[in-house]
């Protein structure tokens, strides 16, 4: 009988811990910024970038995803994802990204690029031809 009570208590603690974690992370999601490089030539990479975004979104929970281009902030939520590819113009100025999108505002920052390989404080996803 003692083993049954111990097993029931362990199960209740496990379920309680998982429920607590779910409630906490649902109330306190992580802010993630995804920036797309809109330099000339973007159209050649759109399909692969869209696939990466879909894979990332389907594998992540408890995150508020903000979308932006190297030129401007688009907004929070999936409705803004479709705006990423509307305009491709000019070269990306990598030196201004940290000023436009400070690290302290976001838990994670991703740069989807076909021109930049690395940038301090960013997770750079480089797309090769």
Comma- or semicolon-separated keywords:
alpha/beta; elongated; 5-stranded mixed beta sheet; 129 residues
Question: How would you describe what is shown here?
Answer:
It is a single chain. 34% of the residues lie in helices and 22% in strands. It is an alpha/beta fold. The chain has one domain (30-126). It has a five-stranded mixed beta sheet with strand order 3-2-1-4-5, with no helix packed on it. The chain is elongated and about 75 Å long.
Please outline the helices and strands.
Elements (H helix, E strand, L loop, with lengths): L1 H26 L2 E7 L9 H14 L3 E7 L3 E4 L20 H4 L7 E6 L9 E4 L3
Q: Between the first and last Cα atoms, what is the distance in angstroms?
A: 65 Å
Helix content: 25-40%
- So what's the oligomer here? single chain
Gross morphology? elongated
Instruction: Decide which structural class fits the backbone.
Output: alpha/beta
**Average residue-wise pLDDT:** 82
Question: Helices and strands, in N-to-C order?
Answer: HEHEEHEE
- Overall number of domains: 1
Q: Uncertain spans, ≥5 residues at pLDDT below 50?
A: none
Major beta-sheet overview? 5 strands, mixed
Strand order of the largest sheet: 3-2-1-4-5
How many helices does DSSP assign? 3
Total beta-strand segments: 5
> What is the CA-atom radius of gyration, in angstroms?
20 Å
Beta-strand content bin: 15-25%
